[in-house]
From TrEMBL:
Family the entry assigns: Belongs to the nucleobase:cation symporter-2 (NCS2) (TC 2.A.40) family. Azg-like subfamily.
Gene Ontology cellular component terms for the protein in this record: endomembrane system; plasma membrane
MF terms (GO), sorted A to Z: purine nucleobase transmembrane transporter activity
Species annotation: Streptomyces colonosanans
One Pfam family per UniProt: Xan_ur_permease
Statement: the UniProt record of this protein carries the keyword S-adenosyl-L-methionine: no
Presence of the UniProt keyword Membrane in the record: yes
Region (Disordered): 1-22
Alphabetic keyword roster: Membrane, Transmembrane, Transmembrane helix, Transport
Protein name: MFS transporter
Subcellular location: Endomembrane system
Source domain of life: Bacteria
Stretches that traverse the bilayer: 45-65, 77-106, 126-145, 157-181, 201-221, 228-246, 283-308, 366-385, 421-450, 462-482
């Protein structure tokens, strides 16, 4: 099937594959969106494996920090909080939003909570700030402001956001697999990344990644249904075999080894440990508002970029680039932010790794039901769920990054520099700053400035002016002494 239509690569079933029928099919619109039950199931599995690392990583980030009283969050309780919140919010998005966008604790936001908020207050106070940010997001959705902002983004810039996400998740895959790594500051070099760990590709884990990428692309070229999931499973089995023989010490967060005790007992001790306004007593009203604003901005635009990118890749948007039912999706995302704070797992947001499921053919919320169910199982079988090494899962991100890029780049009007340059800035700043929010912010500001410079200021929607001003203020906050 042609690569120009991402909805038809690489995991489509062969023609004639039966779809579910009746009320179930109508509720999730499976046939209406050109999908099948098998694709949705495969997509749900692929998304789970691509983002399961958060079960390990989020507790490490939050658990390593101390609040102003020197208290640290319990690791076991953080695991439970992370998994419970991811499972519930992913299921909620599937049922209410009916889109294949899974949610979990947001990377970046959890670092802000751990390193900026917690040291200035108690953990319940810090998580209260996250809950308040979620309430603000829900308020913006209820008033229609959030959807208005998204609909104000020109189509060419939307494509730039999609491409930026594709490049970003490809870089995530390369870094998380160890194929490229950060050069330590002690090297005193202006080059930030290098091949492998020391300029060379060394070790079995990297080989697993390379073989996984080649296998995934090979299956895509052959138009094999389930290409991404086949690669993840196949490379996991190979990694298990290699690790059992060679005893590799450098897999990273997740070692491909069958756990001695596959059952984990959930500890729900952190759920509900929140103080909504206690943080304001510690840092003052102005600083407290700025803290909430920082969390809000990251959650708002990270999710916005992910929703745009995933919905566009899944062909859920209309000719104007808008997705029907967007308000439901945005509202669930706001609820997820608040629930993340209420569970002490930090703000929960839409995961860009959902593109792995879309690459498998997922088009509806039923894929989320599968992913959410797997997170629920992981609540009791965390050692098994985290057995898939990143080197086996990240080839999916590289492959999907290519698919997004190849299907969006031709839809930008490169002759109109007032849209082409902002799109260019957006797509490059996401991977180069390792942030979806930064890519969107810099792209928006560039778009407004160039349209004004071209004498086309009246063509810029009011919402774009407002959001660009917010981003400009955000970037100037350190210079103004507000951080």
């Amino acid at each position: 099937m042609p690569t120009s239509a991402p909805a038809k690569v690489p995991a489509q079933d062969q023609p004639g594959t039966p779809s579910p029928s009746g009320a179930f099919d109508r509720f999730f619109k499976i046939s209406e969106r050109g999908s099948t039950l098998s694709r949705e199931i495969r997509g749900g599995f692929a998304t789970f494996f691509a983002m399961a690392y958060i079960i390990v990583l989020n507790p490490i980030i939050l658990g390593s920090a101390k609040d102003m009283y020197g208290h640290q969050l319990d690791h076991g309780q953080l695991v439970t909080a992370t998994v419970v919140t991811a499972a519930f919010t992913t299921l909620l998005m599937g049922v209410i939003g009916n889109v294949p966008i899974a949610l979990a604790a947001g990377l970046g936001v959890n670092t802000v909570v751990a390193l900026q908020l917690a040291p200035r207050m108690s953990w319940p106070d810090a998580m209260g700030m996250v809950v308040l940010a979620g309430f603000v997001v829900m308020l913006l959705v209820a008033t229609g402001l959030r959807e208005r902002v998204m609909n104000a983004v020109p189509l060419g810039l939307r494509k730039g956001i999609s491409i930026g996400i594709g490049l970003f998740i490809m870089l995530i895959g390369l870094v998380d697999s160890g194929f490229v790594s950060r050069i330590p500051d002690v090297a005193h070099t202006t080059v930030p990344l290098q091949l492998g760990g020391d300029g060379h590709l060394v070790g079995w884990p990297v080989l697993i990644f390379v073989l996984g990428v080649l296998l995934t692309f090979g299956l895509i070229v052959r138009k094999v249904p389930g290409a991404i999931l086949i690669s993840i499973v196949g490379m996991t089995v190979l990694a298990l075999i290699i690790n059992s023989v060679a005893k590799i010490p450098s897999w990273g967060l997740t070692v491909p080894k069958w756990p001695g005790n596959p059952v984990a007992t959930p500890d729900f001790g952190l759920l509900g440990k929140v103080s909504l306004f206690g943080g304001f007593d510690k840092v003052g009203v102005l600083t407290g508002i700025l803290f909430v604003f920082t969390v809000l901005l990251s959650c708002f635009f990270d999710a916005m970029g992910t929703i745009m990118g995933v919905s566009d890749e899944a062909k859920l948007t209309n000719a104007q680039g808008e997705m029907p039912g967007m308000n439901k999706v945005l509202f669930v995302d706001g609820v997820a932010v608040a629930l993340g704070g209420a569970s002490s797992s930090s703000a929960t947001t839409c995961f860009v790794e959902s593109t792995a499921g879309v690459g498998e053919g997922a088009r509806t919320g039923f894929a989320n039901i599968v992913t959410g169910a797997l997170f629920t199982v992981a609540l009791f079988l965390t050692p098994v769920a985290t057995m898939v090494p990143s080197q086996a899962a990240t080839p999916a991100l590289v492959a999907v990054g290519f698919l997004i890029l190849s299907n969006s780049i031709k839809e930008i009007d490169w002759a109109d520099h007032t849209i082409a340059i902002p799109a260019f800035v957006t797509m490059l700043m996401m991977p180069f700053t390792y942030s979806i929010t930064n890519g969107i912010g810099m792209g928006f500001i560039t778009f407004v400035v160039l349209r004004l410079a071209a004498g086309r200021g009246r063509e810029v929607p009011v919402a774009m002016y407002a959001v660009s001003a917010v981003f400009a203020f955000y970037y100037l906050m350190p210079a103004l002494g507000l951080t």
